Structure formats: C-alpha cells, structure tokens
Amino acid sequence: MFSPLQRLTQHADERPDDPALIAAEGTMTFAELDRAVSAVAARLRALGVAPRQVVATDLAPADDWIVTLALLRIATRTVSLTAVGSVPGFVPDAVLARPGSDAVEAPLVQTVDRLWIEQVVAEHDENAETARASTVLYPRSDSICRLILTSGTTGTPRPAELTVGAVEHRLANLHHYWTDHRRELNLMTLSTTGGFHTALACLMHGTPYLTVDPGGDRHFARAASARVQVLTGSPVQVGHAMVVLRERGIELQGLEEVRTAGAAASPTLLGEIARTLAVPVRGVYGSTEGGGVCTRMLHRGGEPDDVGEPVPGIRLEIVDETGQPVPAGETGDVRYRGPALASGYSGADPDRRFRDGWFHPGDRGRLTAEGHLVLAGRTSELVNVGGVKIDPASVDRAIEGFPGLKDGGSFLIERLPGVPELGLAVVADASCDLRALDRLLRQRLPGKHPTVFGHVSVIPRNRMGKVERGRLTEEFRRRLELE
C-alpha cells in the first residue's frame, strides 16, 4: 500500500481523536479524515473514476486534501489545479471542481464542495458501510501517482509525472531538507511539490496538516494556536507572513525554524527573521521535477548564490555545452539525477529537460571545492543587451533595500525593433526616488543597468515567488504602445 494511506489507516486505528487536518472549516481527527477519505473514494468509484485515470481537482484547500487522498486510494493520477488554472492541450479523464470553477473540461466533471463531502460521508454511514472502502494498489513503483504543474518563470505550465517510487523516496528523505516530525505551516498549496509533500509527510509523522487560505490570512492565527514549530514558504511568502504577523500581533511561540525555497532569500528578509523570530533559516534549492537538490543554513552575511551541498540520493554535475563535466570552480550548466526524479512530462519536452536519466533545470552554476553549488543565473533568462549578457535576477537583488521600494522585477523589452533593453518594474511608495535608483544601478551594475523604469501595482510571480518576466514585458509593451 502507498505508505501515506497506510499511515492514515494506522493513525485512525491507534489515535483516532488526534487532529489530522486543521482548516478554515474546522479540525478533523484522524478517524474523521479516514472515514471521509473512504466515503469519497467509494463515491468516486461509483461515479466511474477508475485506476490510472488522470483526475484534476480545483477545490478549496481542505476539500482538495480529502479528495486527493481518496483519489490516491483509487490509484489514480492526481493533479491539483488550484491557483494554476488550465493548461492548453491538457485534458484529464475527470475534473472535480468547486462550484463556479472555470477548470479544464473533461469527459467527467463533478462539482465538489464541503457540503457534497459531508453528504457523501452521511450517506456512507447511513448505509451501514462501516468497513473502509477497499484500497486499490498501484501495481509498481514506477506507476504514476501524481502530476504537478511546473510553471517556471515564462512559458506554459507542463505536468511533471511523479511515480510512487519517486514520492516514496522523497518522503523518506524530506527530514534532511524540507519537512520532519515537527508541526509546520507550509505556505505553499497542494498544487506545488513543496505543499504536496508536506501534506503527505504530516500523515507519515502523525502531525496535523494546516491548510492555507488563498487570498486570506486566517491560517496564521490557526498556526499560532496549533503551536507550529516550522514556517515554510518561498521568500515572498515568508516575507508576507512577517508583515501579517507583525501587523496583527500574532506570535508563533515555539517556532524553531524557517525554511525557504523557490528563490534566494534576501539579506533584508534574513535580517528581519533574525530580529523578529530569532530562529535559524534553511534554504532549499530544487525543482518540481527533482524535489530537493541542495540545502544549507542561511545567514545575512552569506553568499546568496551558494545554495549548499546536495541532499542524500542526488548526483549533481556541472557540464559544458557538449554535456561533459567541467572541473570544480568552472561555470557551466547544472544537471542532476536521483531516485526522486520525475519520470518526465505528460506530453512534449521541447527543451529536452530530461536527457539520458538527467534533469537539466536550465540553471548555470559551479561547484566549489567543498561540493557546494553556487548558482550563476538561468540559461533561459540570460538576456543579451548590446552584446552584454545579463542575468535579470542580479538586477532584482541589486535594488534590495532601496528606500521606499517594496518590490521590483526586471524584464527585457525592445522599444526599437532589434534593440533590446533591460526594464525594471517597481512597486514603491511616494518617497521612492526612481532617478536616485537609476543612478545607484548605474554605479552597481555598469553596463548592465536597466534603461526603462515604471511603476506597477504588483510584480507578477509564479507559485514559488519567481518573477514572471514575460508578463512584465507584455505589460510595458502595451504601455508603450509597441503592439
């Protein structure tokens, strides 16, 4: 049996009244969660949902977790569309969506909300079906059990296929870099690899899974009441959490650690965590396709591009354009492999990210003599401006802490055809002096500074907090009437 489902059954038998799910709708015990998962699984089978089918969910966070566990019990291939939306050309076998959802179409569409789940459980109980719905086993370790959409910083999301073996390996090693037995608030949703594996780990360890309210902040108060010990999220999510905790006077007493992934935590954020929370910070470098790859403890004066040493089970190499490994200290393309690697994408892989058992994330970097990976930008993001290659992320870091600046993101734009320029979009208050910012960047980044500036209400970011530069380019092309 898939180990998380086995643990759910075990906890329901041995500790039925312990909390298993803490959400806006209330708290569910392990016994209640197991009963709901069993009832929903039986109803979905009756509706025609079958093993190996691709079933997409677009549901409220707590409902998504209940239904996802039910789908795993049926041995389907699950994918959460929450906060992602549809993917062109991606047609699942079934869609389970909240009322009013504009999720992708499918041969079978079922509306699901909390009332539906409660009715299913009540009917299950009334029919005296006291036994759990039988679990359908995934036949092999290489059976696909989960699809997770990778959004990247540009382009269209693609579903990465995770096998039972890859998920089990990740779960067995999460304590090295991501999630352990401690109570945790993970600000990432189930639609992300980080959120999905945290939820599974909660079942493994018998700790409650705390859902996150999209567009709301009630989960912070619940986290305080639950005495969470770990706060996890992208740097943008953790930064937002710091603001909410401070403004609402919420204290996470008992907090022991902050973990970040998806981007480099800025010195300002690390300083704020040190002052306000006084807990250590762990940084994780990885991907949906590979899981956690490298990790290290962060501090304000450290090298932000040093993402640490590989986690157990990961083989990491730096290679040249021919695919040959380069000596330590030389910069090249990052690639890695291991038993936690996704088996590939559902559909085409035009960039050939998966090659000969390796995954190529599109990052550039070098390995130090100590075995640490130091990143040097993304191959796909490097822009050529007047013959000079520029990493836009370096510009984003250079504006960190500028007076009056709340957020910013750089992008490429052509005001004259064939003449690319670097632009910078900023979220700033009235005290922010863009002329002074321009002068500062010319000093810090001579020859690599932006020449187009503009205010925006928000910097578009993906689920992991990375700037969606293509959307900024589109916005400023409209503003400058370059269509």
Kindly describe this structure.
Helices cover 29% and strands 28% of the residues. With 483 residues, it is α/β, with parallel strands linked by helices. The protein has two domains: 3-367, 3-Layer(aba) Sandwich (Rossmann fold); 383-479, GMP Synthetase, Chain A, domain 3. The protein is globular and about 75 Å long. The model has no long low-confidence stretch (mean pLDDT 89).
In CATH, the architecture of the largest domain is 3-Layer(aba) Sandwich
CATH topology of the largest domain: Rossmann fold
Biggest sheet, spatial arrangement of strands: 9-11-12-13-14-15-22-21-17-16
Cα separation of the termini:
55 Å
Mean pLDDT across residues: 89
**In the CATH hierarchy, what is the superfamily of the largest domain?**
ANL, N-terminal domain
Main attributes?
483 residues; four-stranded parallel beta sheet; GMP Synthetase, Chain A, domain 3; ten-stranded mixed beta sheet; 2 domains; 29% helix; 12 helices; single chain; 27 strands; Rossmann fold; alpha/beta
